[in-house]
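Rotation project, supervised by the postdoc (A.L.). Task for the rotation student: set up a whole-complex structure prediction and record inputs and outputs verbatim in this book. Inputs entered:
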Amino acid sequence: MLDFDAVSSAFELLGSSASAWVYLLPGLLIGLVFGAMPGISITMAMAIFLPLTLYMDFLPAIIFLTAIYTGAGFGGSVPAVLMNIPGTSSALATTFDGYPMARAGRHNEALGVALASSVIGTLSSYILLLLLIVPVSAVVLKLGPLEMFAIAVWGMLLLGSLSGNSVARGLLAGAFGVLIGTIGMNTAGYVRGTMGVPWLLDGVPVIPAMMGLLAASQLLNLINTTYLIENEEDRGISFAAILAGAKTAIRYPLIMMRGAGIGVVIGSIPGVGSSISNLISYSETKRNAPDAETFGTGNPKGVIAAESANSSSEGGAMATMFALGIPGGGATAILLAAFAMHNVVGGPQFIANSKDIVYAIIFTNFAQAVCLMFVGLLFVYAAAYIVRVPLRFLIPSVLAVSTFGAYAISNSLSGPITLFVFSLIGWLMLRYGYPVAATVVGMLLGGLLEENLIRTLQISRGEFSYFLERPGALAIFALMLVSIGLTILNSNRRKRLERSSEIGS
Amino acid sequence: MDRDNARRRVEWGHLVLLALIIGSAIAYLLDARATSTATNNIALVQPTSVFVFILGLLVLSQAFPKTDGDDAETRASERAELIRVGLLAAAFGVFILSLETLGFDLATLLFVAGGLYLCGERRVWVIALYALLFTLIVVSGYQWLVPFPFPMTVL
Amino acid sequence: MSNMTRRGVLKGATALGAMIAAPTVLRAQAAYPSQPINVVVPFDTGGYNDRLARALAPYLQDALGQPLIIVNRGGAGALLGHTYFMQQPDDGYTIICTSAAPFLPLNVLTQNASFDVSDFHMINTPSRDYTMMTTANGTGITSVQEVIDRLKEDAGSLSIGIQPASADLVNLMLFADAHGIDRAGLRLVTYSGGGPTRNATAGAVVDVGMVGGQGFLRLADQVTPLMVFDSGPRDGWEAPAVVDVSGADAQFVAGSQRGWGVHASLLASHPDRYEVIASAIESVSKDPAVIAALQEQDLATDWHGPEASNRSIRQTFEVMSRHVDLLQGS
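Outputs recorded:
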């Protein structure tokens, strides 16, 4: 699989200018800081620094930009764990267990788990990339609307895990989210539900709505609490505990590999990417875990599943970019522009002819992942001090920062207004036991579900035989059913075992 | 609906929430159908909003839970808490609406100061100092990070 | 406005320590421009106009002697950004970098915009796209004649990837009319955005794609071009132009026309300032160093000038307004 000539010339390329590596650290730090600020997207960070790379050589430019990419990918997990703010949609599933862990005084551990899972996720995704870049690229563009619909449905299965005690409330919250996610102009050009507001044509701004539902709603409730973590002795900041968290992550290689696999494959699909992969990985991990019922209350496995998937999506997106010359999202569009400035243009020809450059970039990312482990440790150590800040300071501050972030996303009041409206809805939902996360998942997937359902109907002209022409979609649906079937089987067997052991004792 | 003798309480907030969800589903469906009844428009929206409508009605009874005999005292403290949440939410709303008229700098300063007070800080110098420092740092930080300008009054 | 003066465009650079020589051309205070100039980009960061604005900005600010501040105002098919631009004073301190076509006509014709196309004056639209009919390699379709024959026999026999309410759709319908193809029977598969349409075309998810051709340049070895909707061959594609296929008088709409513009009222209110901006853009667009730098980023710098740029947008608007029914949902 590996072309060793290319490998050695890749190393030559990387060693050719040692000074290029000077840009790795600043890149990672910029990425971490931008990623951790709510509302500052990876795309924005990279767009700002792209002009700077105009004046650099190829290698430093690429090291710098991909380091920002890697750093920002993890940066978003920090506010997700500490404040329940998914700064990007790819950190959504991280909040499910990360934030409960932090509230229970396991913030150090949670950050350590997230960091180690991200690092290993990134590493393994690039290893997978080395092996999979050609086959993945052959498949990815062939995915039709039915296949995409199947993937969206797979993401929706997560609603089952998020429902808590009341399935009806969970489904209601999820379906409500789907409706919100379809507001605006749909894929066929019809405009619905905008109430005449021009900015709603593009739909409800997702990230401000997410921040409102998940974070601002919590903050309003916390007004009657003094600290994020109630027990004073639990508010410690401990390097040892962060490292222990990292060790915890390593103890679940299976979850991590599943996350990385899901991340690479889903991440390579243009327009889907990490925002869906973390949901699917979380839902698969939960359904297959013996302690599924503790997910959502602070189970580190949930964090591992989410973080390994969202960080490995980076590798998948890179694969599509290299192999096909197609950006999977905003960040890879910028990378592609940066490559183009140096006459590096992706595509099948590029993969065939410039293996050394591809390998060099992959090895660069290995180095970044390793560096991220150390830089990230210091970063999360510093960030963890947030738990020591009394809530009377934290509440107005975080509300204000979220508002700045919401404005930064839209460059108009539409973001802050969305944030406010959804913080009220989220507060009501929390108070009466509706899972807000289900609404967020519905909102994220609603558009994807709708456009691909419509395209399936358009392309098939409503004829059922189209299903039989799409073996890929049938395979995804089959995989989904098998996975659900195994879960049911497993849980039955577990129950039987429990019962028999009860009888035995 | 069971008709036993246990008393039922009305959760008004819960009712508001369900009314909002059910109401917006109906309004959305009507709006979508007014745009066009083509499959390309309502293939997903119509079944989903009907689903939300039915599910909402099924859940409606949960807004009238049986009273578990909570005494007046807990309800009074709950009311006090609710008032604080309401005040904070109102302050947040005013903050957001004033962003472009007052400028991000002034609005943030006032909101953080007011928020600190609402959240229980009473030392005036702490409120003033923190609000000032926070505003300076966050405003300049975001100005630096974001590739376009924010409306400001003073800074 | 004074708040904006405090933002140096290259703040990121200073932070890194990688200093780039900032423009230090000093002019007399009274002369225009005496303060930074805002460039409104009515799209989010990362798109073509954003990249064009940011790539040209360093050169343009050298020529103007004042920093340029890029202001992204994306949303609602550029309607929000265009409206915002129109609300700014026409004093030459706010200019715009936008896809004047098709978005200005679309805003006016389908979105009840508060402005007219003629309220904008484009100084130069270097990037001029065109609708291209394309198929993936290996679909078995090799020529536009084949598409015509198959669609004439059964309009639904081929699936066509296309954006709703777009210039591409107008072109498809004009093409159908010209060759006696049943409009209503066409099997349209709608995508929101050019990128997804191209991906679906290159992946053979749809049989034929109708979308801007320049975006295909990077995918050139994966697709077979069938026809370009322009008055002659474009970008080296081995495909006939619409005038060769449907006749010299064939009707079609030009594709996206992206570039630099100002308030039309600036010409009357500050003709001197307009001259400064226009000549700065012209000299920068013709500078070989700039052309080379932008070409490396796949960005166009061709100089067509205000007259040709505005004429072309007016024509696009006229054709689109004749087919307004096609632009309102499908």
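Student's summary: Chain C is about 40% helix and 15% strand.
Supervisor addendum: The mean pLDDT of chain C is 83.
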